[in-house]
Amino acid sequence: MRRADADATTRQRIADHLREQPAAASTLATEFAITTASALDHVEHVAQSIDGTDEELLVAPPECRDCGFDEFDDRINRPSRCPECKSEAIEEPRFTVEG
């Protein structure tokens, strides 16, 4: 159920967006006119708010575009470079709400 944008908080609108399609934090930041750090904060709170429901927050981890490495220690934040090939071509993690 999609909330009317005028009545929804930014966090509710982000949750609704993630129910419809996966998105990276930078995409959410651009779409909702917030910082990337704020978008990540909202995503973390969305995860907490759906805990105990039939929904879950799924995270597609960051991935090196050059060598395909995707086993980064921090699966939420975008790393600056790949530990395997040292490339800086890192795909951002993407979030989605399913349930």
Automatic annotation (TrEMBL):
Region of interest (Disordered), ranges: 1-22
Biased composition (Basic and acidic residues): 1-20
Domain of life of the organism encoding this protein: Archaea
Record organism: Halococcus dombrowskii
InterPro entries: PF0610-like (IPR038767), PF0610-like_wHTH_N (IPR049159), PF0610-like_Zn_ribbon_C (IPR057022), WH_DNA-bd_sf (IPR036390)
Protein name: Transcriptional regulator
Domain PF0610-like rubredoxin-like zinc beta-ribbon C-terminal as annotated: residue spans: 61-98
Positions of the PF0610-like winged HTH N-terminal domain: 9-58
PANTHER family xrefs: PTHR40663, TRANSCRIPTIONAL REGULATOR
